[in-house]
Amino acid sequence: MTQSLTDLICPLDGKPLRLNERSWRCDNNHSYDVAKQGYVNLLPVQNKRSKDPGDSKAMVQARREYLEQGYYEPLARALANTVLAEGDQAVLDAGCGEGYYLRYLVEQAEQKGIDLRVAALDISKWAVQAAAKRDKRLSWMVASNVSIPLADSSVDTILCVFGFPVEAEFKRVLKPGGRLIMVDPAADHLKELKAIIYSELKSKNETLPITDSAFELTSEQQVTFPVSLASNQAIKDLLTMTPHLYRSSAEGRERIEALSSLELTADVWVRVFSYEN
């Protein structure tokens, strides 16, 4: 059975939040309403770096359209298998986007009879709105990894899928012996797309995404699979949902406009770090 992880804390004073009808409230009477889509905004204005932080509405819509076609299901499957190997647990998706990977995980857990308590956050309100509309059982939050609104030592597993880890906060919310599962691009990820949109390809040194000695790398799996995009819309959705759209040249985007199909390589690391405080 899947349930909400409810060990929420106030982003202003760190005190526990309690749900009273449609509002989360702390002892200092700070109150946060649950939106009609089923999420709560726990990102105070003073913690925003911009008026509308995170992925834009267009990026979220493109990612939803792309992922729902199943192009990255092999990655979702590998991630779910890695998470569920530990059985019943409390999970935080730290940078959940529109929720594709987490929904897949929950579906697999229910098929296997594994009990999960789940919270998910993203700094993009558009992403969290889209995610919460699809599954209201989970604790969806607009929040940042810089200040995670969960109690100390409340989580068994953190997922950070193509996200930005904040090691100090991850250590705070993880239980001793808990896990951090990082998903990051490997060297050949989307190399065919990059060859089209960039005038030159720069190779980057592959380094571990986590450097804190409290985290020990216990396993890593390189998940590589082909992706066949059979329409220009699918190609544009992929470009729009990635940072490459804003880094590409006008000439590169013109070349994308002319394509009706594209054969791609998905190449991704799934790494598990154990946390011992």
Question: Layout of helices and strands, plus pairs?
Answer:
Layout: E1 2-4, E2 18-20, E3 23-25, E4 31-33, E5 39-41, H1 57-67, H2 73-84, E6 89-94, H3 100-112, E7 116-122, H4 125-134, E8 139-142, E9 155-161, H5 167-173, E10 174-185, H6 191-197, E11 215-229, H7 232-240, H8 244-247, H9 250-257, E12 262-275
Parallel strand pairs: 1-7, 5-8, 6-7, 6-9, 7-8, 9-10
Antiparallel strand pairs: 2-3, 3-4, 10-12, 11-12
Helix pairs in contact: 1-7, 2-3
Short description:
The chain is α/β, with parallel strands linked by helices.
Describe the structure.
It is a single chain. The protein is an alpha/beta fold. Helices cover 29% and strands 29% of the residues. The strands form two sheets. Strands 1, 5, 6, 7, 8, 9, 10, 11 and 12 form a nine-stranded mixed β-sheet that branches. A three-stranded antiparallel β-sheet has the order 2-3-4, with no helix packed on it. Helix 3 links the parallel strand 6 and strand 7. The longest helix is centred in the middle third of the chain and has 13 residues.
